[in-house]
Amino acid sequence: MAFASIAPKGLLMFAIPRRYSHFVFGVIQSGLTSLIAAGIASFSLLGSGNGNFLRNWLASWLISWAMMLPIVVLAAPAIRSLSLLLTRDESAN
């Protein structure tokens, strides 16, 4: 099983089977969310003048991502079901 392939335009594409797309979504979503949250939480260090902002931000991000990834992957199906219960199909009147 190959995990990478060359796309028609010469770009390297990961060949992860589509059935795992919810896990890929969870990895991307939790990584981006925790990166932003860690940056906001570390923002107070920016003016301290000790030059540790980037190091603290990345350390905070890795810790928060490790914590959030399993939560996002496990909670995503329940959140999706809840969102479907709270909304209606636009074609239904």
* Structural category: mainly alpha
Number of domains: 1
Shape assignment: extended
The low-pLDDT segments are: none
Radius of gyration computed on alpha carbons: 19 Å
Strand % is: 5-15%
Largest sheet: 2 strands, antiparallel
Kindly, what is the distance between the CA atoms of the first and last residues, rounded to a whole number of angstroms?
46 Å
Oligomeric state of the chains? single chain
Overall average residue pLDDT: 77
**Number of H- or I-type helical stretches:** 2
How many distinct beta strands?
Answer: 2
DSSP helix fraction: 55-70%
H/E series, N to C?
A: EEHH
* Strand adjacency order, main sheet: 1-2
How would you sum up this structure, described in words?
Strands 1-2 form a two-stranded antiparallel ribbon. Strand 1 (4-6) and strand 2 form a beta hairpin. The chain has helices at 21-42, 53-86, and strands at 4-6, 12-14. It has one domain (21-86). The radius of gyration is 19 Å and the shape is extended. The model has no long low-confidence stretch (mean pLDDT 77). With 93 residues, the chain is mostly helical. The protein contains 2 helices and 2 strands, in the order E-E-H-H.
